Amino acid sequence: MIKLSDTVAVDAHALKERFVRASGPGGQNVNKVATAVELRFDVTKSSLAPDIKARLIAQAGRRVSSDGMLVIDSREHRTQGQNRLAARARLAELLERASRRPKIRRPTTPRPAAREKRLDVKRRRSRVKELRGRARDAEE
Q1: pLDDT tens digits, residue range 96-127?
Q2: What is the CATH number of domain 2-99?
Q3: What global pTM score does this model have?
Q4: Partners of 74 in the beta sheet?
């Protein structure tokens, strides 16, 4: 088990890390050292609950491949260690969000008094706009 945060831990076999050369800050070091981290998390083989897996796949979007592999790329720091921590933090945050159940929306209906008030306001507004028009002769 790898502990990603205080509340999130995943199986070690579900995580795979690959280190590649990064572009960006680092000077000549960029050309020599593989500092960027490509963290792969196998969602389908993980021990997560089925509903959490489904939410994770939906929330991650195009970061999840067709075979259920979540890919997180981190190359914002100069060192491999910092990028590794950043990738794991991002994974932990994604798992944290996916583990929260969405609140069920219960549709409500407006009360009769509120409905009447809304219609009354509409009538008044209509009357105000009607008075803005051209003055009509009393003969018509």
Answers
A1: 888 888 889 999 999 999 999 999 999 999 99
A2: 3.30.160.20
A3: 0.64
A4: 37
